[in-house]
What we know:
Blueprint: E1 9-10, E2 26-27, E3 31-34, E4 37-49, H1 53-61, E5 72-75, E6 78-88, E7 95-98, E8 101-106, E9 109-111, E10 128-138, E11 144-146, H2 151-157, E12 161-180, E13 188-208, E14 216-237, E15 255-276, E16 283-293, E17 304-307, E18 309-317, E19 324-326, H3 330-336
Amino acid sequence: MVDTSNWPLIAPLPSYGRGRERPGGRYVSFIHGDGLQDVIITGENGTIDGQGDVWWNMWRQRTLSFTRPNLVELVNSRDIIISNVVFQNSPFWNIHPVYCSNVVVRNVTILAPVDSPNTDGIDPDSSSNVCIEDSYISVGDDVVAVKSGWDEYGIAYGRPSSNITIRRVTGSSPFAGIAIGSEMSGGIENVLVENVNLYKVGIGIHVKTNSGRGAFIRNITVSDVYVEDARKGIKISGDVGDHPDDGYNPNALPVVTGILIKDMRGTNVQQAGLIRGIKNSPFTGVCLSNVNLHGKPGPREDPWSCSDVSGAAFKVSPSPCSELTSVSDRDSCANYS
Length: 337
């Protein structure tokens, strides 16, 4: 059993202004590094077990004093390789590179029970030149979530996540397979997601933000994705996520533009897609190409629900919402973004 009574604390990340789930500092991660270069965490598929049960129970009982520890967190570091390790039962997020550059995570397995709270698989955060590949992730929250800070703190810190590649990942989660956001106040750009297989997920691809976040999400390309058993295949939403405190500016509206999703198919998908922009900052350049998301037999929701968005669609089944203008060839969709 983990003894949490003397677990050391560290300061909150400046781009968050406080712990992610509780005000004040944070319990230090099981493996933690700050200001490192040339980091290698590897093994012959040995297991690092975070023994998260005690932390999950504290969360459920609302007895946490501070934010739970990640399993691995590297801060202000560069030239990182994490490979050939099984990570399981993290108290909170599993692998969290923040303010890092040149990060490779490959050939890892990440496991946590489906009901374990906030056990995201890999969360690159205000980091650049990140490659996540050839891995299996089955967790209680988002499989991979790209982040960059929280409301006014992320805006002030101003470090985007950029040049992120996610490929050949298989995952399962009651929440999102691949998520962009919702904490993205430093901006997120140049993300490539390809060759991803998702099973028993809440949402296949989820781009999420909120008023008060500011910054931007742009130049996102998702291709060759298979989704099986999902509530929603695609969700792009401007009303997701909470705020760190009352100091955020509700008029700091994110700009979401240039999202291309192509060659995506799904089976047993309850709703193909929901795209809900922000009234005073509509999402633009949202393009779907060769997207086939088939539902379960019998009554179902409207296959698409859209508002405050513009873009294009080519070979989308079921037929997309009218806000996405039908185009006659794939290049038109790609160029539209």
